[in-house]
Amino acid sequence: MGRDRTWLLLLPALGLLVLLFLAPLAWFLARTLFIETAPAEVPALFADVLTARSMQVAALTTLWVSVLVTLATLVIGYPIAFYLANRRGWRAALVVFCVVVPYFTSVIVRTYALTVVLGRSGLINELLGASGLIGAPLALLYNTFGIVVGMTYVLLPYMVLTLYATMKAIDPNLLRAGRALGASPLYLFRRVYLPLSVPGIVSGSLIVLILALGFFITPALMGGPGDVTVAMLIERAIEILIDWPSAAVMSVVLLAATLILFAVYARVTDLRRMMGA
Amino acid sequence: MRAALPLFVGCACLLLILPIAIVVVLGFSGGTFLRFPPTSLSLRWFAAFLGDPGWRAALWSSLAIGGVACVVATGVGFLAAYALVRGAFPAKRLILAVALLPIVSPTVVTAIAMYYASARLGLVGNVVWVGLCHAVIAFPVVLLILLSALQAVDLRLEQAALSLGASRARTLRTVVVPLAAPGLASAALFAFLTSFDELVISLFLTNAATQTLPVRIWNSLHMQVEPTVAAVSAFLIGVTGVILAADALLRRRRKA
Amino acid sequence: MIGRDASVPGAVGLARARERAAAVTGPAGKALELQGLTKIYGSETVVDRFETRIEAGEFFSLLGPSGSGKTTTLMMVAGFASIDAGRLLVDGVDLAAVPPERRGFGMVFQNYAIFPHMDVFENVAFPLRARGMPKALVRERVAAALDLVQLRHLSDRYARQLSGGQQQRVAIARAIVFQPPVVLMDEPLGALDKNLRYDLQVEIKEIQRRLGMTVLYVTHDQEEAMNLSDRVAIMSRGRVEQIGAPRAVYERPVNAFTARFLGEANLLPGRIVTPGPGRIAFQLEDGAVLHADEAATRGAGTEGQLFVRPEKLTLNPSADPLRDGLNHLSGTVRRASFLGSVVRYAVETGSGALVTADAPNVAAHHHPEPGARVALAWSPADTVILPPDAA
Predict the structure, then answer these.
(1) How do residues B101-119 score in pLDDT, each as one tens digit?
(2) Where are the domains of chain B?
(3) Is C174 on the interface with A (CB under 8 A)?
(4) Which residue of A171, A181, A185 is in closest CB contact with C174?
(5) d(CA B213, CA B180)
(6) Superfamily assignment of A41-276 in CATH?
(7) Which among B59, B35, B63 is positioned nearest to B49, based on CA atoms?
(8) Closest Cα of chain A to C231: distance in Å?
(9) What residues of B are in contact with residue A76 (Cβ under 8 Å)?
């Protein structure tokens, strides 16, 4: 067959990635940081941007929200994935439907849908009001709670699908073996199932964390005035302040955090099975 | 204990699907204000959506951009997936990791970088250009789908074709593509959907004339909440539903 | 880890190992009673009224092709499949309502089912810890069980670092470490190659004998079942075709299925001329009359087939005188296949039927060339009359 030249087929993809993704990124960062800014001023620029109060608050908000969202998706997603991995039939199909339809629905539509449900005159407040449980409508939107609920809603499917892929790969014979050897269901879960699902927990948490750190649409629409994430700050730097250097510095920080997490993710996950493909 | 799990899962699923169901119902509401449950049902907001030149233009530009992204991402993604599945060369893991970067990088950063380049090239608002930029983020989706689809194609069938004298290109065209056809179709559908639903890149790269449906939804959410948004959202959910149903049919064929 | 003796098994070590292994010997096995055990999936009866009593300390095998219901039977005994009809008793106690983890049976799976996140020691300790056994005792028991399967030097390895045979030894140690009265084994050697399989058969048999446990063993390999078992149940499509000691089942099958499943079989159709008991005369379709020694009476004129194993036949030059009291057929050698320890001949008889005869591969034996005329002879004691094949 001669020398293997299949790798040539990668060239179009490489072209697409380089020309429309890597090159613009490099161009943007290199030009704003190294050409339009004098080399001597770069450290000062970084120091200024990173010590600005708005940036520090945004960084803390982003981190705090992302961690909360990761934990929430894990706590809610684990039982769902567990159910899916161990059931068959129409009930499981229904659960898959309920996970997959939101997964593939536009983020803007999902966020809009949540604002309808959680708004002051939304379904939840209407129901609670009608039942007499609350006097005044609860503030479920435009605060940190709103962001966490919104992002948990949007990112939950990633967690469920990642956990499901791991759980599905657990050999059912191991569980049978455990039971046959005298382990109670609870003991078996603690000593066998949970440890074997740890890779899924790690992968799922990492992917949710990665996506949460860079999330823009949902916090922008569901957060309050005080809830500004780093991604929102970057957008404002461009759209409102037209401050490219600051945007570049913040982008470097956000990108670096994402890439480090992704490097860890790539080491612990079979990338071919990413996103439950 | 035994009932707790199904109960929890049932509630979680209800909460997952409920907002989407509510928006679909609202899209069909007959009132002037968004109220749930709606007092009456009608198609008036769909009529408003399709009757409004602005919304119609947004729909066309979404379709055009989605079309470009779909064709480019599927073509490029297929070749790359084939190379990664069948090729014998080093650093495959690294190549795959790089190929997946567009979906893990913060979209705001990607969008700003693309905007930066587009502005200097005078391409902001160009439908084909935006389609190409969307192809960048649709490409990883295509790649993941086709990696698993091509893995399922029996290598021996390709070897048989080659042993019978077919060239590499001919084997790809007459054996691999037909066998991977359902997977290719799925990949194309999801590539289109990825672009069709994309907001952040479109937000930066389109102008008033070429704004897409998500961008228009975004803008109207920032101005006033008009019930048309519910109808447009219901429409987008409908597109997702149709594509998922088509994919389910294709999966069945892939198994058969 | 403290207490895990890492000493290399030398002469002293080996003696100590034996002592410890002896400590594993627990209470002897218990009797297992299957009373009409039945499993139904939809409209299909997967196991149809399985009925037997497996004695304490007995090695009992379920043998059959895939889909015969042997694994389902095992799963019902283990508690992983519900029992649709019939009863399952252990020393007289009904187990239907007892969940698998409370039945106290050891179980060995085909693909070993070694917990991948635990090392060998932890795997074997698993059933003991699940029972809340004190640490010191766990260490002692695990050490003894690992000695028994000669794996003590690998106690801190993980499954992926072990060969197939070693993994199966771990699975066996894990299944016996808590001294279960009954051990269930589901094709435990199915994934191993032939030589290793034989070595492990010897080991399993040795351990079973030493510990006196009752074993219910599933396999599709008839040699394995015959080598290991005190009794074998041959299953086909959910039904038990025959239960008996390996030799009895092999030499006196009750129907054509068992006859064929346990090895090469000659089955010649015909009808009974003189019924038993004692010596039955049986006429082949070409008119030849042969004899079989049977204890039971058979109706004259009944159709059936005459069964004899190839190794029971002797091949003689056709000129040799016939000997009294033996069955005789003459024919032409059509094919000779060299199988190593025997040469297998296909001999065409007058009626055109092909009879298979095995001649031991020794110089003293007559080894005709294809085309040669030969006389076949065998004893009526090695002959069985079977019912005709069910349609």
Answers:
(1) 999 999 999 999 999 999 9
(2) 42-255
(3) yes
(4) A181
(5) 32
(6) MetI-like (1.10.3720.10)
(7) B59
(8) 24
(9) 12
